[in-house]
Recover the amino acids of this structure.
């Protein structure tokens, strides 16, 4: 019973009426079958009107959800919220930038600039950049596993209680005594998650070398999910665990479907960029980016925590070719997510007076071990040694590496059209197959 007592169902897994729930709680509903209220609670085994029900077995899979795969449920929900709140925000500077000498503006860049990376040039005192980007994502994989094909296996609590050895004539500290401990439950999970984000940006040249800005995202999230669970008895003429029916004629399968959507304010970002040095061919700057907990985490509109990023920026210019590098650190005030090292390298290249190509490699590398590790294999001792793997989601680092490929088109003086594709290049975290961006920027 030790594992059973160590943890009580966290708030994430406590069921509430669906009408009062957000999208985060709908994930938990995929693990609730019937009116038991708790994930993996066997309603049929607990039916007081069923004379053959064995009420003591109704919650024997609940500890597995709490201590083992409950971590995975927490990982899924946290990964969704973080991925939504971490949607890319466009660069603080766009279009041609200037510095002033004796009140005369002198161009410091020729291209329209990067899209999601940062260059060291600032806008110039008194200049204003406003924009809006529309981003569309269909999240498809978690740590490389298709969201439509997540496999979970929940094992039985080790029911070692005082007198158990005498009742079952064996060592109840071994997994498999009593024999019903060999039963387990499989669950096939199919998730569809679509997110769109319209991000409104405003950046202002406070001084010749200082820009301030704000980004306000409006998020729309749509979730559809289906789960199919099956109790897998180890053997015997009757069943101890079932969703409905009787021990002689049990129903061992159950399914659940949820669907919901939400729209609202996401996590607002405030930004400050200070250019430290600049000459005809290179520039250096620092950027601070704070993201506030303004989006509803329960509806997957925000991360549910405050974060701040500090980034060092170096950029250069060789004719129409402008390489840049960003290196920094992201602090996250979260109990379930790690901080991250940030690194971006790329370039923007002026192809014509009206077109700029922007290419970047954007990465977030987690600091330390993941706080949401996948549980290890569950081992049975009796009647013979064997193991069950709890999930097909691997226990890997949640590093994020994306390739960004985009174009900027000058539609009119000061007006720029932005198009971009964001492509995952590794398997960490929760990722779309590709993310698309379409935007407008106007500087004056």
């Amino acid at each position: 019973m030790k594992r059973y007592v160590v943890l009580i169902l966290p708030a994430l897994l406590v069921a509430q009426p669906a009408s009062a729930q957000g999208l985060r709680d709908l994930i938990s509903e995929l693990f609730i079958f019937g009116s038991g209220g708790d994930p993996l609670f066997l309603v049929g085994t607990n039916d007081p009107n069923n004379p053959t029900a064995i009420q003591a077995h109704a919650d024997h899979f609940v500890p597995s959800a709490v201590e083992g795969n409950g971590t995975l449920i927490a990982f899924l929900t946290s990964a969704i919220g973080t991925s939504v709140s971490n949607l890319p925000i466009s660069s603080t500077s766009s279009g041609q930038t200037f510095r002033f000498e004796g009140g005369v503006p002198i161009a410091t860049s020729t291209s329209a600039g990067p899209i999601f990376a940062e260059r060291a040039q600032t806008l110039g005192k008194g200049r204003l950049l406003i924009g809006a980007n529309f981003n569309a994502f269909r999240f498809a994989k978690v740590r490389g596993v298709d969201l439509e094909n997540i496999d979970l296996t929940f094992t039985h609590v080790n029911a070692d209680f005082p007198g158990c050895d005498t009742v079952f004539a064996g060592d109840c500290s071994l997994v498999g005594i009593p024999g019903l401990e060999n039963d387990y439950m499989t669950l096939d999970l199919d998730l569809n998650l679509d997110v769109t984000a319209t991000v409104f940006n405003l950046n202002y040249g406070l001084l010749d070398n200082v820009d301030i800005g704000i980004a306000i995202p409006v998020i729309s999230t749509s979730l559809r999910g289906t789960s199919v669970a099956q109790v897998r008895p180890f053997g015997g003429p009757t069943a101890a665990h079932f969703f409905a029916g009787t021990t002689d004629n049990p129903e061992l399968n159950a399914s659940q479907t949820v669907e919901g959507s939400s729209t609202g304010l996401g996590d607002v970002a405030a930004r400050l960029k200070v250019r430290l040095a600049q000459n005809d061919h290179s520039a250096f700057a620092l950027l601070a980016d704070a993201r506030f907990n303004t989006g509803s985490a329960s509806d997957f509109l925000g991360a549910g925590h405050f974060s701040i990023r500090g980034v060092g920026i170096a950029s250069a210019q060789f004719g129409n070719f402008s390489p840049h590098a960003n290196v920094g650190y992201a602090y996250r005030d979260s109990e379930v997510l790690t901080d991250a090292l940030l690194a971006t390298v790329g370039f923007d290249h002026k192809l014509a007076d009206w077109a700029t190509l922007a290419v970047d490699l954007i990465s977030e590398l987690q600091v330390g071990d993941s706080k949401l590790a996948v549980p290890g294999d569950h081992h049975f001792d009796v009647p013979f040694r064997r193991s069950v793997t709890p999930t097909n989601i691997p226990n890997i680092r949640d590093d994020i590496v994306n390739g960004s490929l985009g174009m900027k088109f000058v539609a009119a003086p000061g007006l720029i059209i932005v198009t971009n594709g964001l492509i995952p290049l590794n398997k960490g975290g929760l990722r779309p197959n590709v993310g698309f961006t379409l935007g407008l920027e106007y500087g004056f």
